[in-house]
Structure formats: structure tokens, C-alpha cells
TrEMBL record:
Belongs to the KAE1 / TsaD family. It comes from Trichomonascus ciferrii. PROSITE patterns: GLYCOPROTEASE (PS01016). Binds 1 divalent metal cation per subunit. This is N(6)-L-threonylcarbamoyladenine synthase. Signal peptide: none annotated.
Amino acid sequence: MLALVGRCCRRRLHPKNYSKGYHVLAIESSCDDSSVCLIDRQPGKAKLIDHETESLDSSAVGGIVPTDAKTHHQGHVAPLVQKMLHRNGLQKVDLVCATRGPGMMGSLSAGFNVAKGLSVAWNVPMVGVHHMLGHLLTPRFFSNRTSPEYPFVSLLVSGGHTMLVLSKGILDHQVLANTVDIAIGDMLDKCAREMGLKGNMLGKELERLTQSGVKIPAGFPEDLQFPNPLYNQQGRVNVPAFSFAPFISAVKRASKVHFNDQLDKIPHEAKVEFGKQIQGAIFHHLTTKVLLAMNQAHSRNDIDLEKPLDFVASGGVASNQTLRRTLKHSLPKTLRYHFPDPKWCTDNALMIGWAGIELWEQARLHTDLAALNKAKWPIDQILNLDCWISRD
Ligand code: AMP
Ligand code: ZN
């Protein structure tokens, strides 16, 4: 049911005949990436015209500072839009899409308010998009909406989220497993920082380190005792949930016990091995729980693992090649994998534009301009929010 509250008002909009094709401008600003794109939507196909992202560099501060992220978007979103329209000889578009939530409020509002302004100025509809819907629908842009086919399962692994979602339709999503503490990307970043790695995307730096191809150094500890959290301890048998917080304690303990609290200063070969083991332990935990949650969904007849089933892995961490291999190796052979190109795994405007197009065309929805951003917005409650407007 659509939640149209009193303060939202329907406006007469979209005299244009959208069935003949239309241009879309999309803005993503939920975290620290200001991202803008233009899409040319024609009947039966969609073409990305242009895409640009300006990321906040937080490498010196050791984490994203929300106020810095907001300021970053305020300084970048509008100029990116202006530059992109000029570059492509466009004065206006027919549909504006922007991330409404979930995410950091300051960041979200900086992009969303630009989108509202453009919608008013051009008198065109706006779609307020759910960020995670964008991640899970991404492969449908590249397959021209043919795959993944509903029902499909998505593993969304990023700096802010870790969840396994079963999607039965554009507005019908069920969370099969979620994290009980922090997100996997956040934990990979914390572990990499503890190891003395530097950069803006520390999970990516950790992956690069593990690919250095050196041998295990002589005398390297046999067992670093990395955990597999929530794994059949008393009272926690078969919990379909992830937990990543224990990994940083384990890294600190191993650093103290084996490396004299000088993990950041150990020789390169030892660091490579340490990195492989901690990344491997985190991915092992993730995969164990994905398998458990999928088996449970199979037992409930929510999915059928004996038949082909589409499986999407998206979000920044999904660009990790070791994780992709681990998933393929550990999960049922009936799965058909959709791994977006790493560029489209991390936050981007294309996924917001495409999810906006699907909401507009399939669900026939757009968003009233009185809509506010939502820091928390569960994926299984997409419609359970005010200010949706139905075109029917
Ligand atoms: P997102 O929140 O989707 O923009 O993704 C950002 C998160 O993904 C950060 O925690 C990154 O460290 C992590 N990340 C990006 N690339 C990789 C990679 N190749 N391997 C592991 N983690 C990654
Ligand atoms: Zn994301």
C-alpha cells in the first residue's frame, strides 16, 4: 500500500510521452562519493551517456567524517551536474533520480536537494531511490532487464552494509541474513589500518597486498586463531546472521601475542601472509553464513536450490576477486553468478538511475518533493514510507 501522507501533494507532471524514450539524470550521495550520471532510456534498451564520481579522500583521517562528507557533496554535486549537462549538450532531462536513503543524513540531503531543485526547475518527476535497491538491480541494467530474473538472491557487501536479500519483485524483498554489528567493508578497513596499510579504500589495499605472490616466511605462527563468529556456540546454533566486530579484537590479540604489538612494522612477506589469513577468515565467516541462510530459505521453500537461481554480489567488497572465488567454490552449483564490474560494485550514480527507471516504469512510482531523506530504510519496507506517488 502506498503511504501518501497529508503533507505530500500530488503535482500535475510529466506531459511527456515516456514510452518513446527519455533522458535520466541520477545523483548518488549517500556516503562519501558524489556521483552523477546521464542515461538515455529508449524502448527496450538503456545507454549510459556519461558518468562521473568525485570521492572524498579520508585517508589522512582514518575514517569518514560525516560533516566532511556533507561538505564534500555540497561542493561537488551541483558542479558535476552542470559540467555533465554542458559536456553532453543537454539543457534538461525528463526524469531525475536521487538516493533518498539509507545513508548519512547530511550526505543524502546534499544530493537529494539538488535533485529536488532540478525537478522543480525542469517541471519533471523525481524518483527517490533506495540505495540498496540500486546495488541489487545493477546487473539488470547491463542485461537489458533480462537477468537476474525474479526470484533472485543478492549479497550486498559494502562499507555500510552486509546483507543477503531475496528479491521476488521490484518492491518485494526479504532479508535472509544481516549483520548484528558492523559491516564487512568497515571491518576489512579496520584490520587493514591496524596492519599499517594506507589509502582511501583500505579493503582494496588489503586485497592488493594479498596478491603480492610471496611465500609464507619461515617461523610464521601456525595458527593466528581468527574466529568464525556466531558459529554454533551455545545458544547460537544456526543463526542466519553475520558478525564482524570480533575480527578486529582477534587481529589486535594476534599482533600482541605474535608480533610484539608491531603489526604495522613486520616484514612484507609476513604482512602478506597475515593479510591473506585475516581476509580469508572474514570471507569464510561470510560464506558460511550465506550458505546457512540459503539452505534455511530452501527448507522453507522460499527458494529452490536444485534449480538455476540468479545470485548477485554487489557493494564495494564484492569487487574482491578472492571473495568471488570463495563464493563460487562454496555455494550451490545451481547458482548463476552476477558480479558487476568493480566500477559498478562501489557506490555509483548508474545504479541509482537504473533503479529509478525500474521504479518509474515497472512500479509506476515517483516521489513527492516534500519527501525527506531516511538514514535507516529497511529494504523489505520500500513502500512503507511517505511521499510515494503512483502514476496509476
Ligand atoms: P561501498 O560502501 O559500496 O562504496 O564500498 C566501499 C567499501 O568496500 C570499503 O570498505 C572498501 O574498503 C571496500 N572495498 C572496495 N574494494 C574492495 C576490494 N577489492 N576488496 C575488499 N574490499 C573492498
Ligand atoms: Zn553502497
